[in-house]
Every structure is written in structure tokens, then in C-alpha cells.
Fold each of these.
Amino acid sequence: MYTVHLKTSTPYDILIGPGLIAQSGNLIGKVFSPCKAAVITDSNVHPLYAPTVMHSLSNAGFQPVEYVFPAGEQSKTLSTLSDILEFLAEHQLTRSDIVVALGGGVTGDMAGFAAAVYARGISFVQIPTTLLAAVDSSVGGKTAVDLKAGKNLAGAFHQPSLVLTDTDVIKALSDQLLSEGAGEVIKYGVLRDPELFSLMCEKDWKEHLAEIILRCVEIKKDVVSCDEYDNGIRKLLNLGHTFGHAIEKCSDFTVPHGFGVAIGMAIASGAAGKKDVCNRIIQANTNCGLPSSFDCEPSILAAAALTDKKRSGETIDLIFPEKIGSCYIKKTPVDQLPFLFETGLNTIKEILA
Ligand code: GLY
């Protein structure tokens, strides 16, 4: 088992290894005394892992209760959040009790936000069950729900007290879910790690999942420990996200987040005039079963990007690759967005022709 220690305002461990779901009660018991534990999960993950987690928590002396919501981004709303908060209140959770987020990015973001606001903040544990959540969203304390205007527009910074990543769970994922997570892994390669990037261009990348998760979490730890509240270098972790979120939104969320990030990175490199980097990102995307293009008018995509959180007045912080392993943040006037989408998508078209 690997342990990564993240020093934020409230420091915590990220444990990565096999069999952690079955040991979750004892592992959580090393951080919390027995208390009520509200396990929040979705309808896909519930039958697979909730019974094991509930049993393990009971055996370790916790009083677990479970809340299940319909799987999918369409559940990541204020309405589901409200239901979760009412559930916590009905079960009389207090500030000495905990929330356990068992699932992918939607579950972790929404259960984390519930923990951030319930009783003005209670502790929570992340148990990510997707590659995307394991390498990115379970670490660093960003919690949120979507608003009609855009993704993650209502949220809070609230660090988990423990992250348990069971590599057996990640290894059992479908090809589609592994591809979705690969979008974020390639992001970490483009940002900081040419070796990780090269691994994502190899046919056997899925045989190295534990090492891939460890490497991404180590990079995220380095970034988040310098800039917990996203005022500086943490913005780099948004590589591909502004372009990608616009694509997700314009597809009515039929394009999943990891796919949006993959296409978004290709657009960012094309828009920056880095055709060689764009070409390599497309190669990595293709190798990992990810798309690199999206058919939509640049002006429509640009309009969808205007509600992005990285916008401040008439500018937006965009992330562009310099080369594989190095990126930079550029404050960009929002009226350049249509041109950037167009240039990026045209570069991708030329490469794919
Ligand atoms: N997912 C980007 C971040 O945590 O900052």
C-alpha cells in the first residue's frame, strides 16, 4: 500500500492499495472514534460496494446509514444536495459524525459539499471508485454541485480527512470508465510528467494503474499543498477544463468529463500554436480510447465557456501547454474565446485529416 500525506489546512492521508474497501471500517477507525457514518453513494456503485463498506464500518464500531441517489451528472444538483442534507438531519448527525463519499466524481463532489455545509461543516472520507476520482477529484477538497448555468458553480473548499483508493476496485472498471479517468491522467503528464505521458501512449498502460494513481496524486499533492484555494498554480490543474466543460455542456452532458478534458487539452495546444504537442496529445487520447474532437460551432462553444468559474470580469485564466511536461496560465480576454476554439479545432482537424 502507498501512503501520500497532503499538508493542507487540515492535513490527511491518501491510501492507495488493494483490498481497502473491505478494510474501510478499520482504516476510518484510525482517524475517527466510532460515530454515525452517512455513506453517500449512487445507484451504480451501491450494489457493488456499499454492503462491504457498511459491514466494515459496523464491525469497526461505527453506526452506518446509507443514502443512494440516481447515478449520473444530472443528479449533481441543489435538489439532490438538499435531499442529502435532509437525510443527514433526519438521522441526527452532529459535528462529531462523518460523511463517507463512496463513488466517482459526482458522488465525491456532492457528498463533500454536503459535508462542507451540514451543521456548518462536518468531516468526510473519500472512497473513490473511478479512475477519474482516484487520480483527481477525491484529492484537494474541491466540492460542488452544478447549476443550470454551468458545472460546479455552487461549491466550497472542504478537505476530506482521509482518502481510501482501493486499486482492486479501479482494476475492475469498464474500459469506458478507465478511458474517462485516462483523460485526467494524460493531463498530469502534460502538466508535469513526460514519463507518465509516455506511459499513456503505451498499449499496456492499464497494467500500471496503481503506479499511475500514485504519480497523479503525488503531483496533485505538490500543487495543492502550495495553493490550496486555487489562487495561483493550482489553476494549472484546469488544463483542458474550460474548453472541455463547454463541450460537456453543449453535448447536454453526453460527453463525460474525462472525454471533455481530453478534447479540451487538444484544443488548448492547437490554440496555443503548439501543433507538435497537439499531435502527441491526440496520440495519447487515441491510445486511451479518448476522442480529440467535437463537432460544434466555435461561437456556441465560446458562449458556453462564459459561465466558467475561471472567468473574472472580461478575462478568463486559460492553461496552455508549452511542451509535454510544462504548461502556463494566461489571463485571456473572453472575446478571444471564439478564435481560440476555432484555431484549436482547426489544428485538430488538420492533424486528423
Ligand atoms: N480538479 C482540479 C483541482 O482540483 O484543482
Note: The chain has two domains: 2-171, 227-352.
Amino acid sequence: MEILFATGNEHKVAEAAALFEPLGHNVKALVVDGESPEFVEPQANGLEEVARAKIEQARSMVIGTPLADSAILVEDSGLFIHALGGFPGVYSSYVERSLGLGGVLRLLDGSDYRGAEYRAVAIIDLGDRTLRASGVCRGGIAEERRGDGGFGYDPIFIPEEGDGRTFGQMSADEKSALSHRGRALKGLSEPHKSPSK
Ligand code: ITT
């Protein structure tokens, strides 16, 4: 199946392609009229609400185009830092661009309580039905940046199920095996094994 991932984030597309291609699915970024989609993200309390808004917008972008019958994937994700009451959460993308990783590390300066989790909600619209799945990756925030793999907060995020390295220090496959996105996308490909929560 060809899956069009409606996202402006090329790293998300690469991670989904690596996961779905061995299952025989081809993943490409959704491009409409030469542009990747720009979503109006609602001021929402949760990833679920944002993901639902994205899938509706993505579906309406392809109506009447040759892509109208394609499977469309969206995903909304974020980093939730416990000591900061879940911040940046649904605002992760904006905070990464504005405060940067250095700014986030400064917010935790001197704190021993560094627990955090990445969360993702993925929705695929197959035309006749829509599947949804979520994924969580628990871990903590490093004392300083380590590694330059992955994207976003990966150089400062240490997954609990790893060996102490940040996601920024791991290969793409190592990250995918543990990550929130890997889990959410696996949930879509094996809906009978991982019921959506
Ligand atoms: P689209 O909305 O176009 O898909 P986006 O990057 O803005 O792209 P989100 O709104 O879902 O996506 O924001 C997710 C942000 O959370 C992302 O930009 C990063 O700052 C952070 N994030 C999510 N998953 C991450 C991961 O696997 N590694 C590092 N940072 C991640």
C-alpha cells in the first residue's frame, strides 16, 4: 500500500518509512500542489485532538485530486517533562524552535527530578475506515546534549529501556524499537495486537 504521511517534518517520514517498508508499504510525504501541508493546529489540551484535526484537514486537502484514494497518515507527538507539569507537551514543536534544547535544559538546571516521556498519537485514514494508535516512551532528560542523531529533543532524551545513551546517540533502528512513534505506528500495522487506547 502507498501511505501518504501528512507532515512537514521529514524526520517523521523517514522513521515511518523505515518501519513500514519492511512490511511492504511505501511511505511518502503528502505533497499537494507542490507544497507539504500546513496545518492549523487547534489550541488543544491533548495530542488526540490535534491528530484528529490534522487528519480532517489532510483528507480535505486531497479531495478532488489524484491522491483522493490514497491512505493518509498523520501523527501528533510531544515531549512531556514531569517536573514542568507536562510542558512542553502539545507545544513541543514551538518550544523547540523558540527556547531550543539549551533553554529546556536551563529550566531543569540543578534539578534531580528529570523524568519525562515522549507520546505520540497516529491516525491512518484508509478511505473506508480510520485506525488510531498511540505510543509512549518513558525516560528522562539528560544533564547535557549528547549525540546528533534523530531530531528535536533526541540529544537530551534518555529512554528508560535503553542503556543510558540518548536517542541522539542511537541508530535509527535502535530509536524506533523503543520510541513513542515506533510504538504508535506498530499499533497501526498490528491493530489486533495493540488495541488503541
Ligand atoms: P507536523 O505537525 O507537520 O507533523 P511537527 O514536527 O510540527 O510536524 P508535531 O506538531 O507533532 O510535529 O510536534 C512534535 C514535536 O515534538 C517535534 O517537532 C519535536 O519538537 C518533538 N518530538 C516529537 N517526537 C520526537 C522525536 O521522536 N524526537 C525528538 N523530538 C520529538
Note: The chain has one domain: 2-193.
